[in-house]
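Exercise 7. Predict the joint structure of the components listed below.
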Amino acid sequence: MSQMQERLPAAPLQRGAKARKSRRQGVGAMWLFVLPAAAVYLFVVLWPTLQGMALSFTDWDGLSAVKNFVGFDNFALIFADPESFAATWRTILIAVVITVVQNVFGLLLALGVNSRIKSKYALRVALFAPVVIIPVATAYTWRFILAPTGPLNDVLSALGVQNPPDYLGDSQLAIWAVCLVMIWQYSGYSMVIFLAGLQGVPEEIIEASYLDGAGPVRRFWSIIRPELAPALTINLMLSIIGGLRIFDQVWALTNGGPGNSTMTISTQLYQAAFRFGEFGYRAALAVILTLMVAVISGIQYLALRRQNGN
Amino acid sequence: MHYKGVAVLAGIALAAVSLAGCSNTPSGGDSSTLKVAGLGAGDHDALVAVGDAFTKETGIKLDISEDGSANYATTLRTQLGAGTGPDVFFVYPGSGSPGAQKTLAEAGLLEDLSSLGFESKIPPAYVDAATYDDKSYLVPMTQGLIGAIYNDTAMQEAGLTAPTTFSEVLQFCADAKTAGKTAFAQGFLDEFIPQMIPYALTPTLVYGPDPDFAAQQADGSATFADSGWKEAFDEYKQMTDAGCFQPNFQGTSFVDSAGMVGRGESLALVGVNAFLQQIQDAAPDGTTFAIRPLPATDNPDDTRIAAAFAAGYGVNAKAKNKDSAMKFAEYLATPEAQALYAKTAAGLPVFIPEGFEADPVLADMIPYLADNKFSPYPDQGWPNNRVSAVHASALQQLLSGDISVDDALAQMDQAYNSKG
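Solution:
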């Protein structure tokens, strides 16, 4: 008995130790499984990012072996250059326009294809199709459509418009043409996320709202909209980040022109690095862009989370 | 076992990723095949023709890639910086481009070709653009000429002749309009096009009357703003105001503008002779073309042209097949290769072989070369790549009416004096 008494408390202790050991082994094994992916992330993303940040404090030209430490000179040059401010302003303008319009269109499309129309599956595929096209290919297609002698102006001319616009050559219009192309391409993306949110709205609540006599606007505002909050948060985050990083479409459509009127931070960054050989300056621009994206999306996330919480 | 097995796998993955990340050798492919990169259109066809002849003679195979976009220089620069560049590649002469000889040679990315012995044959006017630090880093292939490329068939149909004075240029624009045509189709959407007209006008207005202008600019005693560049920009503005260009020229691409000239909707296009092929591709059979100078004053005797050593090939200092690359470079400098390249690209070789017959399209330009009435392209002497980018964007703003001539020239002076 005494032996038993000695042993009895020992059994749960042993089990607890075994369980802890097993858990530790499980956690350790999990880390080992994570290791290859973490290694890829480290070498493909983190290490080059840190290297890039370090370059922002040098005068490296991108080709030579010499890199001189210049402190914050590159950042000072950026803040002294009016074109950098103009490019930042344009980038923010494009990001805001894209975020608002793309999400409004995305939501309307989602509401449309979430209805009981017969062709809703075909429509979903058709509306999502632009998302899977390579951005550069999309931009070149639109460059053809928006050319002065392109199909769009051909239609306008056929309708009797005397001097159809020069969408890409007019410095006042070009930035809107860039927004149009982005919105056309990514509205389907927003639509899919909203659609996922819409399909999570309980059918019985919708039916109850019918019985209570709610009209479509009231039903959307009071029942559907609150349920879509998580989808809206994701959509706004993705579109603002995409808008701030915009490069491919601008470069393929206008090269940042005419006369810098569509130059964004990313195109300015590309130009500084690969045309002017100012890799240090480019890295400083990239650091600023990264901080800008982080701060803006962070503020947006916190604001939306607070709103969702309410 | 589990730990050890997973750890080994993870270690292998880590090592593979590390090694892949550290890899810095030119990209693979058959080691006996020479990787050659060039421009598109005429230069590509010429390179292929010369490459085929080289392969026949030596048995060395060539893998030729082309990039007809405005991004060739930036792509090449990125590849060379990453150690994945081709063995032999097109190099821009002078210093005004990210893919220019001076930029690449300074960074130690070009092999010294002085031992190939062609240096002494380079015409004196091109020595500055063809060498760096008294050494040759590229084999000069063709001379480029800038002028107005006329669709002579459309000109005859419209009953017009090419202008020989600047006043006649403005009259020509008005007459073309009366005939229902556009005088000049310029595709401003592509950045290399806006600069063509100033390049065509400034030999007459700047570099001819003042041959030391580039040197004076370099020592700070001359500026764009206080030079004939002001007159060149004024004339450009006058041409715009006179309706010399097609409607919405700012949003027109080069390809579209070349098509307009080829089809005869426009009578001419100001550009380099290498554009001719793109224009001819859009033209009906039997259409004839000619390149002629663009006059800048009212005295035809003043007229000069922009002509420069325009195409050259360099060898990657880290070429995987250095011996074959050097053999190809040596072959490019031979009279046969020079003649074949120039003939295919409708250009003029730099080392003109005996008995070489230039393309008849160039007939009106040849006397200017013979009489030494030409100046190199201005950008070949500019100290950095920023000037040509600012030149293009300033012209877009100027011709849109967003800025004045003085503002445009001030932007260029600022870019000239910047360090980048």
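Discussion. Chain B has two domains: 34-144+308-362, 145-306+367-417.
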